[in-house]
Structure formats: C-alpha cells, structure tokens
Amino acid sequence: MKIHQIGGMGFDSNIYLIIDEVIALIDAGTGMNFETVKRNMNKFNLKPSDVGLIINTHCHYDHAGGDRDFVSAFGCGVEIHELEARLLREGDQVITLAGGFGRRLEPIEVARELYEGDRIKLGEFTLEVLHTPGHTSGSISLYEPSHRALISGDTAFCGGVGRTDLPTSDIEALVRSLRRLSALDVEKLYPGHGSFVERNGRRYVLEAIELVG
Length: 213
Ligand SMILES: [Zn+2]
Ligand SMILES: [Zn+2]
Known about the structure:
Blueprint: E1 3-7, E2 15-18, E3 23-26, H1 34-42, E4 51-55, H2 61-64, H3 67-74, E5 77-81, H4 82-90, E6 112-114, E7 119-121, E8 126-131, E9 140-144, E10 149-153, H5 171-182, E11 188-191, H6 201-212
Parallel strand pairs: 3-4, 4-5, 5-6, 10-11
Antiparallel strand pairs: 1-2, 2-3, 7-8, 8-9, 9-10
Bound molecules: zinc ion (2 copies).
One zinc ion binds at residues 58, 60, 135, 154, 162.
C-alpha cells in the first residue's frame, strides 16, 4: 500500500493517488497540467472508471481547479469539508483564489461534504478526517493511523506552513491545528506542496509550530 505523487507541476498543488479497493485522488491541481497528470496515472494501468473519488484538502484553486477535469474523465465524486463545499458548488472566485491564478472556477458538483471525525474507508486504508482550520477555515488533514501517514494539505509542509494572509485564514487557528497534528504518531507526511517524507514526518509538524507558534 503506497501513496503515489502524480502531480505538482507549475502552480499545481501536489496530487496524490491512493490505489486501494477504492481508488482515491487527494487534490487535483489547477487542471493546467491535466494531460500530464493523466499520463502519470496511466502508468498504473487504471481504467478511468476505477477512480472513485477526489478529496480536496481545501478549496483553493491550485488544489480544486482541476476537479472538473478529473470528474469528466473518470466520473469520480468530489469530497471537501462542509465549510467549503458551497464555494465549489457556486464557483466562488475570491475565497478559492481563482482570480489570483488568472482563471475562473466553474461550479463543481460536490458528492460528499466532510466533517471532523469522518472516516473514508478505501480498503486497507481508512482516512480519518481532521478539521484543521488556519490556512483556510475549511482545511482538512487526512490521517491513516495504521500506516502512520498524514496528508496535511497546506496546513504543514516539510519545512514550512501555508499562508495565513488569505481570505478565511486565521493564524491562531493554524497554531491550534498544528499542535493537534503534532500529537499524532506521524511517520509519513504528504503535504500539499513541495516534497513529502516517509520517515520522521512528525519532526516537520513540530518545526511548523516553531515557525508560527
Ligand atoms: Zn496550495
Ligand atoms: Zn491553499
């Protein structure tokens, strides 16, 4: 069982692919590099209909802008925290930062609104939804306890934290969220940008607290 990074070019967030009984994508990038991402996926010999869902760590255009491309190519359902579902459904341009990327966010159908404590069962992997506001109010992290894996979106990077000067950002909430993540047993850390690590992930969460705390 492995989490594969299949995207993260240019302005795109990292895009992770989890191949399990249910195949899941974590974040979709901007969509600007969709053809390359699709080619990367082809290496895994997946049929489009195999892809079950996209989980967005938050609403920003660099994470959710590509949702529509994936949905039309694979027929998968989009999942995002309930506080940000409306922004995708209504095609918000401001809080999603679509305008900042020189793009328009077209409305995206959301299949499931996620809440703190939800469990997303993929098979061997079960992802626990942790509501970790700070970078945005509806940011989530996903924790897989048996693999000690944390997917942290823009809440914590391997050497940094997400911006807190954006609409719905809250630096104090970010500090609380990071403290909460630091209490987890994290070996593997898969952030929304930059490199991921598969050893000593918790070290980077603690470093992130030092940076903002
Ligand atoms: Zn981002
Ligand atoms: Zn972001």
